[in-house]
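Continuing from the previous page...

OK, I double-checked the sequence for Zn(2)-C6 fungal-type domain-containing protein against my notes and this is the correct one:
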Amino acid sequence: MSAYRVRFANTVCAPSPSAEIASILDPSVALPSDRALRKRSRSGCFQCKKAKVKCDELFPVCLRCLQRHLLCKSSPRLSTWQVEMRWVPSTLGAIVKVPLLQYWLEQASQMLVIDPENNPFSFPIIRYLTEAPSLLHIIQSLGAAHQEYFPARGPIVSLEEKGRALQMLQREMVQSKKPEECFLTISLLGLSHWANSDPRDFGQQHLFAARGITDHLLSRDRDIFHQPGNGNDNLLATCFGSFLYWDMCCAHLVDARQQRPLDTTPIAQAVRALRAMEHPTYGPAAELIYILCQVGRYCREVIQLGHQDIIKATALHQQLCAFPVLRNNSSLALLYDSFKMHGLILLYRNSVHSARLEDETKEDRIHKYAIKIACNLSEIPLSSNLLNIQALPLLTAASELRSYDTELRQALVARFKAIYSMNRVPSTLLAISLLEEIWEIRDTGLEASWMGYMILTKKWSLLLG
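Thanks. Re-ran it with the corrected sequence; updated structure tokens here:
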């Protein structure tokens, strides 16, 4: 019988979003001086320790780093209620590296969710380790790499654990009668490419493998999503929702000639069944994510092959506009509205749908959407875990800002740095580099979209999410 202990984690009150933005735009703005925010601790960020000054320990960005435009490196905060238990299955024996596993469960896994208190990738994942030892190895690999901010030359232990995960996964794919566990391993292998410093490799092979398992799971038990109960306790529903988000982030990266359609009957039915599911990565937005999967595919076809379809573009535009506004959570509502406008901007930039508008009107509308996204995201506190999934709409909005939007550009770059401080994924910093190149082009009067420039000019497959 498992023994449980519970401890409270320290909590620190964050400043308001308006104070954060003000400190970015104007260094003369006074920062909070409350001594409770500046108490001595061993948990200060790397930059403050290096400078030998007190750190207020705000996560993901302390106020000193925020004001000085520095990359803040600090440890993720533990949940308010932190569970400690004898959780390592005895059958796993010596392959368990307890510090790495515990680091993943308590800290690193937070990068995958918008609410640390609802995290199936943390302690709930332990129940699957016996069935899928490959899952344990990839978790330990990611834990080791996350501790070091996913360096280009990963820690040896991380590379070794990833190799063991791949070896065991091949065996489990043949022997396992529970493909859900294999899906978890494959999705985390995909995450290892998410954290890859090579912008040309987004882990397409793992995405395709996950699609194969997804199709198999849906064909095996199509009615499972309709069963009563909390969808968050349903591993299949969580796996499918995770695949949907992963596909959305990669839809514009896959070669259009190799891309598989997503508008199949089983997938469409699953999306409808999960429309109200509170998925741990993005909340109740499966339908919105599904539409954006289609938008990404369409944009890739236009950019790579020149195939434009006004009927499809118009249908996607209507679906985005029709997605209902969420009313029970203001931060999620702002985020979903930003994702909708992100999709609309991509359609205007990459389809003949926008040809019905005069060029000046089209540009003004795109700019209006970009400003709205920037304002929406700025209303979400930097301390919110919603930061984990802001990169794509943030990149789309920032790339459309004009030369006179200097302060907004600066604020959105600061938000990208905060995302990096929270999830430590190197592609976030590469996105800043991409933005700076696009701004340089646009400031000369030329038109440039981040997606077209990245695919055709940079030859990158930058995975953001």
